[in-house]
Design a protein that fits this description.
binds flavin mononucleotide; 199 residues
Amino acid sequence: MKQMLLLVALLGLAITAPAQDIKLDPPTRSGGKPLMETLNERRSERAFVQKEMPLQTLSDLLWAANGFNRPDKRTAPTAVNKQELELYVIIGAKAYHHDARANTLHLVAEGDFTTAIGQPNITEKAAVNIVIVGDGAKTTPKYLYLDAGYISQNIYLYAASAGLGTVARASYRGPELYKALKLTEKQEVILVHPVGFLK
Ligand SMILES: Cc1cc2nc3c(=O)[nH]c(=O)nc-3n(C[C@H](O)[C@H](O)[C@H](O)COP(=O)(O)O)c2cc1C
């Protein structure tokens, strides 16, 4: 009987506490600077002060980047509405996949991502590094790259509006990053966006 109770307790633990996932609160979806001011302030920033990003800011950032702003469509358009792009978020030594519908970060890998992300002078001090990943099986290469551009610009605009800094980066270390994020053969990294607090 004791063994049975122990088994049930362990099973309960396994069901309730396996994940180091992060359930984010709903995004704010309002406020920010007016669009023309935001566009005026949009720029690439590469110098950050190392500081943790509040989870509400992260939720707002990810929603602005590629969240659902209608039941089945998003803040960034995609050709033929293929929605072939996903965001991964690297925070320190942890990498998460963002489930945009559930607004949850699922832990996918742990380790040192510095070499894989590249440009450590920029990326190490960023609060988060967002990796834009596409599923090449869902669309053409042309659309994949075009669609990623909208997400990148959304990140730029959110950062400008929130007083944060970011830069689109294509100079990551491909093979290392694919391996570190445990991507499948169909998945392609398009850009890495460090987002951080301005110096
Ligand atoms: C597709 C793309 C790739 C880029 N890759 C890098 C990069 O690897 N490293 C970097 O420091 N900046 C990178 N940039 C940022 C550009 O250098 C920057 O946008 C350009 O100098 C113009 O500056 P601005 O964004 O402030 O207008 C990239 C920009 C784009 C659009």
